[in-house]
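Two entries, shown back to back:
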Amino acid sequence: MAITAIKDAWEDFRRYKLDKEINHMGCYIYSREERAYVERCWKDVRVGDFVQLQCNETIPADILLLHSSDQSGICHLETANLDGETNLKQRRVVRGLPGQNALFEPEFFQSTITCEMPNNDLNKFQGYMEQPNDERVGFNIESLLLRGCTIRNTEVAVGIVIYAGHETKAMLNNNGPRYKRSRIERRMNVDIFLCVGLLFVMCLIGAVGHGIWTGTFSEHPPYDVPDEYGNFLSPALAGFYTFLTMIILLQTLIPISLYMSIELVKLGQVFLIHNDIDLYDEAADLPIQCRALNITEDLGQIQYIFSDKTGTLTENKMVFRRCTVDGIEFSHQENAKRLETHKELDLDDEDFTKLQHFTLPPPNLGRAACAQQSPPGALRRCQSARARVQGHARSRSLGRRDSSQSQVAFSSTIEKDVTPDSRLLRRVREAALQTESLSPFIPTRTSTAFADFFLALAICNTVLVSTATEPRQRVTIPPPIKPPGITLEKIHQIFQRLKLASLSQSFSSSQSSSELGVSFGARGPEEPLPALGSGDSSDRGDRGDSGDRRDSGDSTDMGPASLEEMLQSVSSSSLPPALCYEAESPDEAALVHAAQAYSFSLVSRTPERVTVRLPQGTLLTFDILHTLGFDSVRKRMSVVVRHPLTKEIVVYTKGADSVIMDLLEDSGAEKRMKRIKEKTQKHLDLYARDGLRTLCIAKKVLNEDDFQKWANFRREAEAAIENREELLMETAQHLETKLTLLGATGIEDRLQDGVPDTIMALREAGIQIWVLTGDKQETAVNIAYSCKLLDQRDTVFTINTENKETCESLLDLTLEEVRKSYECDKPRRKIFGIIPTAAEAPEAPSTEFGLVIDGKTLSLIFQGGLQEKFVSLARRCRSVLCCRSTPLQKGMVVRLLRGQLRVMTLAIGDGANDVSMIQAADVGIGISGQEGMQAVMASDFAIARFKHLRKLLLVHGHWCYSRLAKTVIYFFYKNVSYVNLLFWYQFFCGFSGSTMIDYWQMIFFNLFFTSVPPILFGVLDKDVSAETLLGLPELYRNGQNSEIYNLSTFIITMLDAFYQSLICFFVPYLVYKDSDIDVFSFGNPINTISLLTILLHQALEMKTWTLSQLVAMMCSLGFYLVFSLIYNAMCLLCNPPTNPYWILERQLSEPTFYLLCLLTPPAALLPRFFISALRGTFGASLILKAQRIDKLPKGQQDLEIQKLRSRKATSGASPAPNDDLDQSISHLCVSPFLHPAAAAVSQGHTEGQGLSSSAVNPLRRGTPEEGYCFYNRWAEEESAATDSSAGPFAPSRGTAPGQGCGQVPKDRDSRASSGSHRRSVSAVTL
């Protein structure tokens, strides 16, 4: 107990030191007395203080940004400690504050700030600032610097403290640690009470028996001595004294030594886990850390895993894979091969060049040199940047947390170095060579589409540009590099010629707004942005075989040699310094790097301008008129720019294909655009099946009048205090309509090595895996498919709503359908003979459903008392994804499942935003990643990679549970079996409390004779080898169901202990009956027989014999004999009036003693051995089968494992294919506000036009996407072209408006035609 207390005190002391270190971190606070910023501790920060923050400094409190050294009033943050993302976020100074160019003087600040009460919502913050002239200026979360974030790319920022200490949003999301007890420990405490009850019953029997025995004497026996008054004890009082005596005699029934032995066993288990070489990450030089010593056995009983996404499942590396431009798909096979062979190693330049090298077929021999010179130049730039970034990674892997050397997010080699597709690169260069020779009669729409596509990739983002030498210093001024072969005036003339050439084929895009009464579309002809470096024909049917001829290189008249010479001079000219891109999301970084690979390089960015280098080397600077950032409701972002040459106002938009396709201009009159849209949709479906993240790229041209009207409306919305969010959403929707589709991209999110295999193994082990992430919903769903958390044939329910009644209706409706399918599955399992285990996990979930839910809906569930319905639905789903979850919500979800289902939970994460769920789970695991050490400090175990979780649970978890469970059961058996020997003797000594065994031998029995073997057994025993445990993950269910240690096994063990004690006592009793043997001579054989029986019992339980275990058992028996011989030879008057002198020496010379020791232990162990033999012969469990496999030769082991796995897969297979699920993938889109006629959605088709229209959705009333639920992936391309089921919720095509609303249609075979842009979707109406 003292050792346990010391261990807990040490852990508390380490937490105290960490808290003290954080509280004494320094920051600069403005002092009114000194009129200067002075250094203070974090603990001294108070609300209302002015705090000055510098670059790479951690924010000490929630601070409202009042000043930034950036002229645009922007401050950049790294929020890894809050949301787990290493990318940068932008925060803006409160609008309306003057003097951003001058120093901020707190003395002159006289405004009054009013804001909301402290809360734990990390994504919302509202308030206003009342200035001295009574003008009110509203602000939101964009102006709040949250505690725990880090200032980046900003030299100085000044703000006023809004929330401090425990009122900050980060602290409110952390509930603090809790004391964790393992399930075995809790079970053991209950059994201790049962042993106390058993002790009470045995003592009561002794007291009653003594009272009855003394009452049988007619006269007081000679040993009954009266007191000084001559009075004798009454039978009742004598019985009470006997009761107390029996407690002292039988108190060893309570295994106090068990607690000390368990601590030693767990310490040995932790040592073995820590030294497992398979759990060591060589790249990061990090072994596993076991920070908690009291819950190792819980690793073998996990039923639910709650995982973070970013940095836990993924490496947060987005890699550009494929794209489609103007209806033509470019597969980027060279890039795919690079990714397959790429390893994150420090390759030398030669190997790296070989890996990246590609050869482009030139149009002719004269241009071969031009086509081959540019790529090596680009590679040299990538190599220089790559070396520096890897230097940062190495320094971080050693455990140093130097903020000034922070690694640039999304800038690893595998993300930056995109190998261009040879066809696409050749088309781009051909278009560049044709530019000077274009005439007004040559159609240029294809060339324009290619140029606009790559310009959109480079411009439509919020990426910051820095140099490789100074990765945190923004590039705001483009380098003065202009190739000598062409001038800006010449480029301007070329763009004018391109514009004239496309006038005859342009089309207009206009939009009328009922709210504004003005048109935001271009009233004049909409011109696709002409630019250099583009070219290809997207419609080969319109041009015959011209495109093919250009592909094959038959056309040699590409243009004058002057432009070719210019390109050659550019490739050989001095190269600009290597650039680093810091993006808010990995998708943006991947797209910018892809554009750079095709020589559309983002050179610099400021809030007002963005500069792009074209393939010819010309720098074009676009004026940024407005930026509409990405949000989870719109699922898109847009940037409004003014073209520097054509002076047109162009809107570039990128976003989810499900949204962009709805916003395209109705091109029914133009067959070409309609054909491009259909081709692009097919390519998107292809990308989706490959698990790629898809984004659509579109554009729109505005005239000056429409833009000015929209800009005025936007400024009014930004200045509004009430309904500000709704007004901003409305303005964004007015701008992003009637777009022109340019193309789409497919991006792969790089998972950590071994994540899919680990998740599949854990699934086979019966573990349910949830993902709780603060990331976007689309990102989480894509990752779920990539890591096999969701299957392509799963029906995925996605529930997003902001209304409690809607949320409850959605839960009820979805739960009803899931229950129907779940009940239909049960008879099939019985028919095919799959018998569930006796202690199966509660209601095994269906394998056909997945659930996706967002943070706002989770808030409604917790606040509206819908927890039971949510749990009832979630437990029946294969996987659950909770997106946009706050740290507090993560912890609440874990506690909800623990409390409602009584299951064992494990939480794993790598950032400070995961601390809450790590502490709430039964087992918390932190990943030693790149997001600080907060998760590791709060965790019970720390690993370097997610794949290590497989062996940690399936092998070490199984071993720890099996060993400790058997050890606990053995200790109970050992104590009960030994104590019962004394209890049976009481029936022959008048329940007087006397013993037939010497007291010293009784004391040493638990202390020395039987203490070491159980400890070694709990540390070293292996019931199944590690290879078999990894090959058969189903073996893990043995610990999940607590098959080794539960109430039934405890009772059976107690009965077995009683039986063995009866044999060990009464066999010697019958042998020595009617003899003149003394009491110690009678007790010594019983003691020896009991020791042999207990040691042999443990030998039967051992599955792995080691030399140390064998030596320990032999030493225990030898120490008993040596101690007894010495003690009996030396002890002349140790226990008067009886005397143990020379007893064992005399008995060792008697054959009867040896006969008893030889026959009695086998008789005592016979029932256990017999039952084990029957169990292994007739009802062999999976554990016994695995143990038999371990005894086979190595070659046969793998074959038997495969046979066993295939047999289980065959027995667990579905009897017949379900046409509704096998022929199509019915992914559910639950949208409570869709009109029934518009909700008939099927494979690749949407019946209604304008699902987002307010006319179809009359309940929305301007509320942005209220209750909208995203649909999920994806139908097979083949089934999209054939008739297939619309899913369990799809209404029939004949449903009239207003009919069937609020109920689930019974026609499950509804059919709908295909041809629209939507993928496989099923909808439900309420």
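entry 2 starts here
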Amino acid sequence: MKKRSAHDEEKEKSQDKDADKKDDLSVGYFQLFRFASCKDVAMMVVGGLCALVHGAAAPLMLLVYGMMTNTFVGYELEIQQLKDPNKTCSNESIHWTNGTVFETSEGATVPCGVDIELELTMFAYYYIGIGASVLILSYVQILFWVSAAARQVQKIRMTYFRKVMRMEIGWFDCTSVGELNTRISDDINKINNAIADQVSIFIERISTFVFGFTVGFIGGWKLTLVVIAVSPLIGLGAGLMAMAVSRLTGRELSAYAKAGAVADEVLSSIRTVAAFGGEQKEAERYDRNLEEAQAWGVKKGSIIGIFQGYLWCIIFLCYALAFWYGSRLVLDTRELSPGTLIQVFFGVLMAAMNLGQASPCLEAFASGRAAAKTIFDTIDREPEIDCLSEDGHKLDKVKGDIQFENVTFFYPSRPEVKILNNLNMEIKAGETTAFVGPSGMGKSTAIQLIQRFYDPSEGKVTLDGHDLRSLNIQWLRSLMGIVEQEPVLFATTIAENIRYGRAGVSMDEVIHAAREANAYHFIMDLPQTFDTLVGEGGGQMSGGQKQRIAIARALIRNPKILLLDMATSALDNESEAVVQAALDKVRDGRTTISIAHRLSTIRNADVVIGFDHGQAVERGTHAQLLQNKGVYFTLVTLQNQATSSSSEEAESQEEPLGPKTRTMSQLSHSSSFKGSIRLRSQSHRSLDFVPNALTGSFQILSGPEMANEEEEQAAESAPVARILKYNQPEWPHMVLGSLGAAVNGSINPIYAVLFSQILGTFAIPDVAEQRRQINGVCVLFCIVAVFSFFSQFLQGYAFAKSGELLTRRLRRLGFEAMLRQEVGWFDDPMNSPGALTTRLATDASMVQGATGSQIGMIVNSLTSIGVSFIIAFYFSWKLSLVIMCFLPLLGLSGVFQAKMLTGFANEDKAAMEAAGRVSSEALSNIRTVAGLAKESTFVEAYEQQLEPPFKSAMKKAHIYGLSFGFSQCVIFMAYAASYRFGGYLVSSEGLAYTYVFRVIAAVVISGTALGRASSFTPDYAKAKIAAAQLFKLLDRVPKISISSSEGLRWDDFKGNIEFQDCKFTYPTRPDTQVLRGLTVAVKPGNTLAFVGSSGCGKSTSVQLLQRFYDPDQGTVLIDGRPSPRISVPFLRSQMGLVSQEPVLFDCSILQNIQYGDNSRSISLEEVVEAAKKAFLHDFVMTLPEKYDTQVGAQGSQLSRGQKQRIAIARAIVRNPKILLLDEATSALDTESEQTVQAALDAARKGRTCLVIAHRLSTIQNADIIAVMSQGAVIEQGTHHTLMAKRGAYYKLVTTGAPVS
């Protein structure tokens, strides 16, 4: 049942998702601004205009740069001419000393008299002017966009939360609270990214793109066209690379998905793997699947390397082409001056680069639109039951008669399961009505319909004859006080919690309610009395205390109708008596409905209604129903027996079970079969928490403990040395890669040298020499291009190889470490199969970020900086020093740029946390909030919490704008200072002007490289944290070691088992003691059968025997040796397990049976032999592929009886001394049951056997039958002795009542 419905749900979910995909998956871009006010629109328009103008600044600078180049070249020519003592300068052109004008070979005059310092001072002012305007423009652009976005997002958050709080409960069943919390934080942040600074940056880059081309075309259209003609090659390369990478990533992921599926399958069925000792086998299977993923990863790395190499190669060839053709235009046709050549070339280059940089913004827009889809859909959705609406009648006088007329009901989250089936019943005003019956039969559902959390699918529920649907919801809920099994308290003081019951009550009323709930005394004993904080989810209070505060909260409403949903089931006897007394006191004169499993709470009800399969099957007083011998009778029989015997024991045991011991069995006396708890776990409750049986501990986890866990993980990051140690075997690859990276790093500075060399050629008077030099430089460009192709490829391939090998190694080690842990570790929700498989998938590949490509980046940046400095200082140390003053600023601006890209979103996240706490508290306890009709209180609290982050966001907009402006203008200032000083050096110290360009270009390049290196830090930090998590897993020492070298082994294993006074609580549910002093023994070759209701510890005792857990007190003796001293693999190899839901692996029948013994290879003959014993052989021979038939995932291709028999064959192949049968036949129909039973009886011969069964017929021939209740044995003996005793067993057999 459980498996099926879970599977169907998955299927439905995926179908829903597909349906969504066909619909529009995202909203239109401009719809994102639907919450903008006129003021916001105005701000965005002004910000957009500023961005447009800002975009024009860089191309404008090129014009200045071009003029400056011309000045330098002219000055150099003049200096060269004036070296000849026969020439002088007069009237701004060069004359011979005899007064005639000097003409060059082409017959042109040579201008002179350039005052280079004056000219450069002018240019410096230009630069400063551009820089200052950039500072102001970019500040305004960012400030306006960011603050407008902050205001809109604030509106979206408020609207969204208010809408969510109005939704009906059924909507919350289908939407997980975690998902809503992420939507409120992450998705809205994505919208923010799509409508904030990214837009202005996008506008600015597009504007640079347009103006860059314009500058190019104005300067010289021929050269511009030539450069444009080549640029598709770059675009093509980038496009192909993106395509190839995404396809390869897809391949890599699907290859890893296979390994992931293996990991998931193994971790989901960890108990089976452990029981059959398959850990080593599974680790190898996982590793085999990793190999393929690794191969694809290496391919991806090499292809990225090839394409990167191709891109750089093309870029350098472009340079060669452009400079060669450009120099022709300058020298031969005189269409361009050297300055215009520079201007055109860089204009086009800049345009192309900005177009490329604009594309990440598109990504932010797309993800914002997709995120907005779900959020806007919710905002536009009309709730089916709107709890904040004013509609509906309010009755003047309420009696409190409630009637159900033909009510049929399905939960919206599970439409295929009918919970209430044509239910008819009436509840009279002023009476106490008790609902009883097995779990999952619709009792709690009926109560939720009375509160109108849901509307019935058919039929109607009426209050005093009025259909609930016609009444006002807030008013209706104000009539009711509800006390649940697991009361939810909010994280504030006790007094505030009681006040949640009704608005505007005085302290006296609070005290009065507390007295009525028997809570006053314990509250007054606390140091801060009513001002004591109850902790997150009431975690600081014991169960009984929480329960009484909840009762006080219900009473202060002065309700007409009191709903008690198992209000005392979570308490121990002492606090139960107190709480029960409180409830009895307040029931008078109110319509009370109580769901209970303990008889003591039901005996004094006026009417008892018995539920079964969603119908009210019996109704009457306690005495009448006992005569009926129906549902109620079974419950009573089992309970009386349990209480009578456990009370005797309780007296003999002196130690009290502290106030928090919540017994699991009380919940389950009535469970109709083991599945009922499972059924429950699927039902409505499970969406609030984990199954109700377990809530006690799980729900608290969502609070402070979980947060601490996360903080701890975030706090520590792993030392790099240790990560590198895992990468040690790949050192040759890493050396090669670093070599490639070093070559790549030095290419940029070399480019600076070549570039300045080209400018130098224009000032050579001899034309032939000019040609020769220009061609030489172009050839050098081509050589650099080829080099860079190979070195990029080398870097890509080598680091991909070492990184992928590391990832695979870490994944394997991580998986092996997981399989080493004890079974109890997997019970922790943080270690669920899903969480662990994701951890394997992501953490390991993140760690790669700290080694492989990261080292490449670092080496690349370092060589780039190193080579640049060497070049700069070699050519002019003075100028280098001046520019170096700007380096820290340039580096800072690089950091800002990098931060701009990631956005300042992360900082805002922290500020949002307080608001997040309010929202998550409200959403996770939505039923309580709705029951108390307190939705609007939480909406107001949330809106208050949004104020501080909003204000800080508005402040940040200024800081952010300034830092952005600074980072944009710093380069202009650097140019102004360095070129001005360069001019001084040229005129006074005769420094060649090419050196000025060379030095400045080299240092600026190294500055940007610095910025780039620092921008890679986020991946690096993430990688270190991921590594820390992995190492934490690798270093964890399991509580129960499965290594084969430790522990005792002995040859003549007999199979003598003895439990001595075992006490045990599951580690994840520390407040529920499952075994309380279990004492029972079985001799070799005998069969011991456990009988008892679900949750009384039968399966737990089997798990202790297998050493999945160790008892907290007492011992399990095997052949007289205490189990913790025995070698685990040895012990498990002596046991064969057949469980109720046998786990089969997704392989052939043969392999599944061979799984029985993983320590040796099993021949087909043995398998057939075992299959014959398990009555399986004949069936297998009818299949077309016989033993090679695939069983499908979890054995889905086979019927239950067939799966069960494969499991039996698997157990027989082990040839175990001890056979464990955990309800091995309960899931079968009669026919297959007989076959399987016969197989089991055959298998039991000569082995010690532990049987857990629900059908008494299957265990009558057992040597010892032990009847269990509440974690202890209440009677034991053979079938005949127990029948003669006329105790619990006798009653169960004679009445034929179901056991659990």
